[in-house]
Design a protein that fits this description.
four-stranded antiparallel sheet; elongated; mainly beta; 83 residues; single chain
């Protein structure tokens, strides 16, 4: 899109989330982002990062780098226009 007059109706971005095993279940780090490792099974409540480097930095800060997994996710947004 090169002009300032056309409304963009779709957008796709690649982001990263951190997963780890907690109570025998693979969970996402919650976006409330506390040092207590709040976790969720809901992807929409997961803390998302714009780059893998940011996710690794967060995992280091939380002290879970050796037991977590950094997972790429694709976020797609689309505006459905009424006919």
């Amino acid at each position: 899109m090169t002009d300032n007059k056309t409304l963009r109706t779709t957008h796709t971005s690649r982001q990263f989330v951190i997963t780890l095993m907690k109570n025998g279940v693979r969970k996402y780090i919650d976006r409330s982002f506390s040092k207590h490792l709040d976790c969720t099974v809901c992807l929409n409540r997961a803390k998302r990062f714009q780059s893998e480097k940011q996710a690794i930095g967060c995992a280091k800060y939380l002290g879970i780098l050796d037991r977590c997994e950094i997972v790429p996710v694709t976020v797609e947004m689309r505006l459905e226009e009424k006919q």
